[in-house]
């Protein structure tokens, strides 16, 4: 009986050791990726970036946009076409904030007014949201963040302020 318990104890210890001991494998360690020839793969070309608009504006107060807190100050706004999408970049002192936009069709924009950044009061009583950029040359409104008027009170009392782009 004592011998069987001892055998079973050693067998369990050996099995645990075998299960927990890492097995080393060095598959294809001596070959690199550059040595593989793939005739059915095409070269990847980066998508072309086309700058559609560039201008300057000043934020008089802190705003938020897609989780970014944007401090007051002077900014450069750049609108680029990336494939089919319009990307808006805010540049200030060497830092860039890249935002995706939802462009409105050109027919829904009036023919009057200069390019401007649209800032909405809300959400809440003391916050502001960078909602859109209107580009006069493109006759296009690029919506960035529409969270400033989702709550009932914000819809009733929130106003939209146009900050001119020069």
Radius of gyration: 29 Å
The description of the largest β-sheet is: 5 strands, antiparallel
DSSP strand tally? 11
Overall outline: elongated
The computed structural class is alpha+beta
Mean pLDDT: 77
Q: Portion of residues in helices? A: 10-25%
Strand order of the largest sheet: 7-10-9-8-11
Low-confidence stretches: none
The portion of residues forming beta strands comes to 35-45%
For the termini, the CA-CA separation is 94 Å
> How many DSSP helices?
2
Task: Report on this structure.
By secondary structure, the protein is an alpha+beta fold. The chain has helices at 2-20, 152-157, and strands spanning 49-59, 63-65, 68-70, 73-82, 85-92, 95-100, 102-103, 116-121, 128-135, 140-143, 160-164. The strands form three sheets. The protein has a five-stranded antiparallel β-sheet with strand order 7-10-9-8-11, with no helix packed on it. A four-stranded antiparallel β-sheet has the order 1-4-5-6, with no helix packed on it. Strands 2-3 form a two-stranded antiparallel ribbon. Strand 4 and strand 5 (85-92) form a beta hairpin.
């Amino acid at each position: 009986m004592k011998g069987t318990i001892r055998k079973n104890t050693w067998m369990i210890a050996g099995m645990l050791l075998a299960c927990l001991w890492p097995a080393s494998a060095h598959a294809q360690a001596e070959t690199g990726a550059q040595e593989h020839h793939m005739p059915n793969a095409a070269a990847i070309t980066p998508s072309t970036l086309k700058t559609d608009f560039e201008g300057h504006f000043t934020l008089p107060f802190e705003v938020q946009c897609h989780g970014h807190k944007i401090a007051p100050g002077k900014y450069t706004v750049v609108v680029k076409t990336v494939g089919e999408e319009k990307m808006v970049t805010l540049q200030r002192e060497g830092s860039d904030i890249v935002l995706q936009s939802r462009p409105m069709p050109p027919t829904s924009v009036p023919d009057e007014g200069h390019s401007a950044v649209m800032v909405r009061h809300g959400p809440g009583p003391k916050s502001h949201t960078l909602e859109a950029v209107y580009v006069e040359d493109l006759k296009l409104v690029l919506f960035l963040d529409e969270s400033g008027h989702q709550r009932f009170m914000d819809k009733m009392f929130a106003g939209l302020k146009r900050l001119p782009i020069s």
